[in-house]
Amino acid sequence: MDARERLIVGLDVPTIGEAERLVSALGDDILFYKIGYQLVFAGGLEFARDLAASGKKIFLDMKLLDIDNTVASGVENIAKMGMSMLTLHAYPKAMQAAVEAAKGSGLCLLGVTVLTSMDAEDLVEAGYQYDPKTLVARRAEQARAAGMGGVVCSAEESASVREIIGPDMAIVTPGIRPTGSEKGDQKRVMTPSDALKAGSTHLVVARPIVKAPEPQEAARAILNEMVAALWPANR
């Protein structure tokens, strides 16, 4: 994969019009887009289909979690939409149902381990007995056992997760912040270069590109940083 296949721009905007303008501004520099709740509930599913039909790759960030049959039914329909990646919370039964439903489709299923907006205190408040590192490791093991295509985790955990899941599964990392940028509501963040060196295969970047005065310039700067990290001998 080249850097364009590894950088996923999060279309975290409130309207389809804004998403269309951003995609147009980024042009051919960006191949991969993430569409989550905000845009989905503004007509984003049809927009996702249209982007996929135009040749873009789509990461549908739905973080599914429900009873087995409901998860399976949802995954079956999402697989027909031409999506490239889909998230669900890394609960064993949900993952097993999703993997069975996605067989033969080419849809890469990603297990969300621990949200990058959560730290140890947040997990305690939510009723978990594990710290983030321990819970991420446990869910990575369960994702591998279920036959998932990859996991979503903080870049802080990428190296340890890679040891657990082996060389073939994807590690998709949100909470990516170029040097000098604001953390926002993220608590476990890392730069693009460090995330790739730690073992992440795909980086999700939203605000540093979406909110930039010149989104294309911001995206190109991140891509250049990724290229330098992936192939330093070529720089």
Question: How would you characterize the overall build of this protein?
Answer:
The chain has 235 residues and is of the alpha/beta class. Helix content is 47%, strand content 16%. The protein has 11 helices and 8 strands. It has helices at 3-6, 16-26, 37-53, 68-79, 92-102, 120-125, 132-146, 158-165, 192-198, 207-210, 215-230, and strands at 7-10, 32-35, 57-64, 85-89, 108-112, 150-152, 170-173, 202-205. An 8-stranded parallel β-barrel has the order 1-2-3-4-5-6-7-8, surrounded by 7 helices. α8 (158-165) links the parallel β6 and β7 (170-173). α5 runs parallel beside α7, α7 packs parallel to α8 (158-165) and α9 (192-198) packs parallel to α11. The two termini are 18 Å apart. The mean pLDDT is 92.
Entry summary:
The model has no long low-confidence stretch (mean pLDDT 92).
Structural key phrases:
235 residues, 8-stranded parallel beta barrel, 11 helices
First CA to last CA: what distance?
Answer: 18 Å
Biggest beta sheet attributes: 8 strands, parallel, barrel
For the CA atoms, what is the radius of gyration? 17 Å
Q: Element order, helices and strands? A: HEHEHEHEHEHHEHEHEHH
The count of β-strands is: 8
Give the fraction of residues assigned to helices: 40-55%
Work out the strand percent: 15-25%
Average pLDDT, all residues: 92
Strand order of the largest sheet: 1-2-3-4-5-6-7-8
Number of helices: 11
Structural class: alpha/beta
Uncertain residue ranges: none
What does the overall shape look like?
Answer: globular
